[in-house]
Amino acid sequence: MKQRKILVTSALPYANGAIHLGHLVEYIQTDIWVRFQKMRGHECWYVCADDTHGTPIMLRAEREGILPEALIARVHGEHSRDFAGFHIVFDNYHTTHSAETRFHSEDIYGKLKAAGLIEVRAIEQYYDPLKQMFLPDRFIKGECPKCGAQDQYGDSCEACGAAYAPTELKNPYSAVSGAKPELKSSDHYFFKLSDPRCQQFLREWTRRGSLQTEAANKLHEWLGDEGENRLTDWDISRDAPYFGFEIPDAPGKYFYVWLDAPVGYMGSFKNLCARQNIDFDAFWSKASEAELYHFIGKDILYFHALFWPAMLEYAGYRTPTGVFAHGFLTVDGAKMSKSRGTFITAESYLAQGLNPEWLRYYYAAKLGGTMEDIDLSLDDFAARVNSDLVGKYINIASRAAGFIAKRFDGKLVSEHLAEKFDAALPGLREAAEEIAEYYEVRDFARAMRRLMALADLVNQYVDRNQPWVLAKQEGQEARLHEVCSILVNAFRILTIYVKPVLPKLVQCAEEFLNIAPLAWADTTHLLPPAHLINPYEHLMTRVEGKQIEALLAANRESLEPAVQAAVPPTPAVAPHSPQRHAEHQQNAEDKMQNQITIDDFARIDLRIARIAAAAHVEGADKLIRLTLDLGPLGTRQVFAGIKSAYDPATLVGRLTVMVANLAPRKMKFGLSAGMVLAASDPEGTTAGLYLLSPDSGALPGMQVK
Question: How far apart are CA 571 and CA 586, in angstroms?
């Protein structure tokens, strides 16, 4: 097999919060794939880094009374600890606050500027005179210009649902300091993603097979058909005060994190190259024959499959060979919840004494290489680990090892077993390439199913030959020795197949088998005749229900509302969600809303609706006119403030959720008879606005309860 040169990255976790089980989906997925490639003998490097810049970091450090550099150093240690705890091994885990990342950020910016793809434009924003900083929309509060509700954000009213510009707020004030904001103009720097060169390049690049099918389809929606120009230019600058890299020749202007964060991949690898004497250009130059893969969450697909490739292409670097997006994690069918104890940090999981390889195996058994979400069912988690790993795989070694140690001085039979082995367990060794292909395409779930089917085959061999019965029969010593030797060899083959998933357990298995670290090619042969194995020690315990209960209890938070501080703290932002990089998150509050009763909730009539028609609203900056089909309830017209995130043509035919009993509101464009539901980051930007969609099978008119 020709040796491949591969560079792999995972999305950079933001240095403002802890790693939790949702984040680990990505890093475990990547680590398994990298370990497999290394087992195959390829040159494969895995790099990552903390994403360290932005206003959230600056404000948190200020609140703690420390420098941002001290904060990111502390968080770097915490992240490194958590990853190591789950046996995630980076060849380099660096930081974006580095000389290497600064160099490549400035280099890429300079080349894009020389190519005519950087443009400076004046934009007008509210400014906090006390904090001396420009305020994103969600840092401005005031009275709704439509209904008069107080303490509403600068982009929309939570009371009446109206969308508006922050300048329309009555009696506005800064959510950071309480001061009355001033309207000021500032020059911002934009990467011209709308340039025809970028549009044409991205149409070609997205057709090269670098993306999953569902990702390619989504990108086609964003790009539109030939001749269309749907992409918008990207604001890549922020004004001081800001923690980051100052833009060359632009005093007081800083690179917005979406320019320097992905460059952190290059910075981390450059740092590794200097220490390991690796040729950086062999992986990043236009002429590179190496492979480059990014593992990411589907929520940052836009940036990694449009913005990032275009940056690289016009800065003279190679583009990714593949961008692999995964779905989100739910726990017991719902979003992770602090009140239910299912918002579980990596640190808490390990502190409760749960085996990290239980989770590695469970995730592997769920990951299919697509963008589908996966669910961590805690009951299924315990049952599957206990059944598959303990009851099937480890059971094989425990059934045979004791007899080899007690009856045969720890030695296998002195004859070559290959022919007898293949006759007794047909297909066990031949499955190596099939399972390898599943690993290669990241269909770990299918690899684990095949592995456990083979384990079933071996356990059937155990049941047919019953070594515990042979041990009691006279004249069956040779047969017992042969059966147990075949089982030890079978365990070794299965151990090769599971090694990318369970590295720590496999290390213990290698010590028990008395062998060198296993490679994938080791499936071609068995252990040598008369091979000496070491005494067997139990490799894994079962998951106990009380452990799961203790884990939930340790992570459960009271529903009692906390007393709000005058200035709410900056939340720990999820490592790979769009809002981790958005300034409007810098002071957003992760707080419990005012509690309601079940009777209050029952008054809201939520219904499934099919978008029958969608169109732009002439004269409206934020609105799209939707015609919603409610099945037996007829149709409704609704004006939705989602123009920044959706093209009307992409909405027709999709299902969503609407409030059907909201009092109609007369607007200058017509009557709006309801409201569609969407999840939004604080500013409701294109990167952070998502219409809710019901599961497949839901029909228009169905009630949401």
Answer: 8
Residue 160 is predicted with a pLDDT of 80
Q: Is 100 left (phi over 0), alpha (psi -120 to 50) or beta?
A: alpha
Contacts of residue 692, Cβ cutoff 8 Å, sequence gap at least 6: 656, 657, 676, 677, 678, 679
Provide the sign of the torsion angle of the four alpha carbons 103, 106, 107, 108, taken in this order.
positive
Q: Is the pLDDT of residue 563 over 60?
A: no
Contact 371, 304 (CB under 8 A): no
- Residue that wins the pLDDT comparison between 626 and 685: 626
What pLDDT digit, counting tens, does each position of 305-315 carry?
Answer: 999 999 999 99
Report the alpha-carbon distance of residue 13 to residue 2 in Å, rounded.
34
Tens of pLDDT, residue by residue over 150-172, are 989 887 787 887 778 788 899 99
**Letter string b/e over residues 99-108, b meaning 16 or more CB atoms within 10 A of that residue's CB:** ebbbebbbeb
**Residue that is written with structure tokens 């670097």 in the block:** 317
**Tokens representing residue 367 in the block:** 């990951």
Output the average pLDDT for the chain: 89
Among residues 557, 95, 175, 492, the alpha carbon closest in space to that of 339 is found at 557
User: Where would I find the beta strands (DSSP E) of 600-673?
Assistant: 606-616, 624-629, 635-640, 655-659, 665-667, 670-672
Given a cut of 80, is residue 586 above it in pLDDT?
no
Q: Residue 220, SS3?
A: helix
3-state secondary structure of 127: strand
- Residue 186, beta-bridge partner list: 123
Neighbouring CB atoms inside 10 A of 432's CB total 17
Token output for 429: 């060794």
CA dihedral of residues 199, 205, 206, 208 (deg, nearest 10): 150
Residues 6+ apart with CB under 8 A from 333: 375, 377
pLDDT at 224: 84
Which one, of 630, 617, 632, 644, lies nearest residue 674 by Cα? 630
Which pairs from 507-512 meet CB under 8 Å and 24+ separation? 508/537, 508/539, 509/397, 509/539, 512/397, 512/401, 512/536, 512/537, 512/539
- Predicted TM-score (pTM) of this structure: 0.78
Crossing angle (nearest 10°) for helices 356-366 and 21-39:
80
pLDDT of residue 369: 92
Give alpha helix (H) positions in 409-476: 418-424, 432-440, 444-465, 467-470
Question: Residue 251: is its pLDDT beyond 80?
Answer: yes
Region 84-102: mean pLDDT is 98
Q: How many helices (H) and strands (E) does the chain have?
A: 22, 26
Task: Give the pLDDT confidence of 226-237 residue by residue, as tens digits.
Answer: 878 788 899 999
> Given a cut of 80, is residue 686 above it in pLDDT?
no
How far from chain centre, in Å, is Cα 667? Answer: 40
User: HSE (CB half, 13 Å, CA atoms) of 17?
Assistant: 26
- Residue 415 makes CB contacts below 8 A (sequence gap 6+) with 529
Q: What is the pLDDT of residue 177?
A: 86
Distance CA(626)–CA(610), nearest Å, equals: 10
pLDDT band at 571 (very low <50, low <70, confident <90, very high): very low
Instruction: Return the structure tokens found at 291.
Output: 């492979």
Q: Is 588 helix (H, G, I), strand (E, B) or coil?
A: coil
Q: Once rounded to an integer, what is the mean pLDDT over residues 650-666?
A: 84
